[in-house]
Write a structure and sequence with these properties.
The protein has about 130 residues and is an alpha+beta fold. Helix content is about 25%, strand content about 45%. The termini are far apart.
Length: about 130
């Protein structure tokens, strides 16, 4: 199975991360970072801006954070996820039809949520780096 290029956005505000509750498979009902697949001939930075705008109604300025291999054989999923920290430059948070809920979740509450894909690893890395 060939990995799909995807992007994810880490958007922080006042000690909380923006997460969305997924409306579709895989991982319906689980929480995830905004993001999605990279279109053909699209840069990674453009993809994270586009996906974030589509899913959250926010315009962002991305900064590279890291790359993660998401291999989940149980669901036939293999993606290479490029993650960006994103500063909001315009817009107000609005849920798209890809989610049933979207909100800034305090860092202390994230651990109690079911997290989709390997987003928990990404979030943990972010919190670890943020503390140093």
């Amino acid at each position: 199975m060939r990995p799909k290029p995807t992007v994810a956005a880490l958007i922080e505000r006042n000690g909380a991360l923006l997460l969305q509750q997924r409306a579709h498979e895989p991982f319906t009902g689980f929480w995830s970072l905004p993001g999605g697949h990279v279109d053909v001939d699209e840069s990674l930075a453009h993809a994270v801006k586009r996906e974030t705008q589509e899913e959250t109604n926010l315009d962002v300025e991305p900064t590279f954070f890291g790359v993660y291999d998401e291999y989940i054989p149980a669901i036939g999923w293999h993606a290479v996820v490029t993650v960006f920290t994103c500063a909001v430059v315009a817009g107000t948070v609005q849920r798209s039809d890809e989610s049933t809920d979207i909100r800034f979740v305090p860092f202390s509450d994230i651990i109690s949520l079911p997290i989709a894909f390997k987003n928990a690893e990404i979030i943990q890395d972010y919190l670890s780096r943020r503390q140093h």
